[in-house]
Amino acid sequence: MKLLVGLGNPGNQYSGNRHNIGFMAIDAVAREHNAGPWKTKHSALLSEASIDGEKVMLLKPQTFMNRSGDSVQQAAQFYKIAPADIIVLYDELDLAAGKVRVKVGGGNGGHNGLRSIDPQIGLDYKRIRLGIGHPGKEFVTHHVLGDFAKADQAWLDPLLDGIGKHIGLVLKGDDNGFMNKLALANAAEPALAKATPKGQSHIRQARPAKPQAALPETGPMAAMLKKLFKGE
């Protein structure tokens, strides 16, 4: 059994944020593999899928980003899943938009989700880093908590489709094969974007069109913002 975790923040107001690309990726996997209904469990939304014969639990922590580790630890303990069988998908500022890298272990890179997970389960889990690009240090908060632009859909939709279709390669340990498949998907992005039917964007499926939410000044989200990428 594997535990596939997507990181993000709960709530419709954050659903289209760059910081929520991990949630979007998990949703793409769930669609592609006809996962079961989402249930509220382990401080998360939880679903189950069979991917290339492997039982996979899909997890979207609902704790806000800086407490993601609480949910991951609960699920890992309940299902007796070792860190080596846990895969976490998350947004990566230090990769160009649309680029993907897979690695095991390493530092948290200033990411609050990983910073929360590491003390709970250790470092020996697999990370799938999904590039969102770096806007410059002074613009980081508004960048990660801002919605993807319409222009981003040209690479975002093929990327999410590719993750859904090829995640089985990662489950089998073929990380390079997975990255190659996604690189090919991005190379073909103009044709794929042109062929995408109107209204079928992964972003639009996730939320209705609406103005970007103002950044909160109080509550758990505000606390997270104060720590966001601190010390980068």
Number of helices: 9
Tell me the distance between the termini.
35 Å
The arrangement of helices and strands along the chain is EHEEEHEEHEHHHHHH
CATH superfamily: Peptidyl-tRNA hydrolase
Supply the number of structural domains.
1
Residue windows where pLDDT falls under 50 for at least 5 positions: 191-211
- The CATH class: Alpha Beta
Percent helix range: 25-40%
Question: What is the percentage of strand-forming residues?
Answer: 15-25%
**Which strand order does the major sheet show?**
2-3-4-1-5-7-6
CATH architecture: 3-Layer(aba) Sandwich
Mean pLDDT: 88
Main sheet characteristics? 7 strands, mixed
Radius of gyration over alpha carbons?
A: 16 Å
Based on secondary structure, the structural category is: alpha/beta
Shape: globular
- In CATH, the topology is named Rossmann fold
Q: What's the number of extended β-strand segments?
A: 7
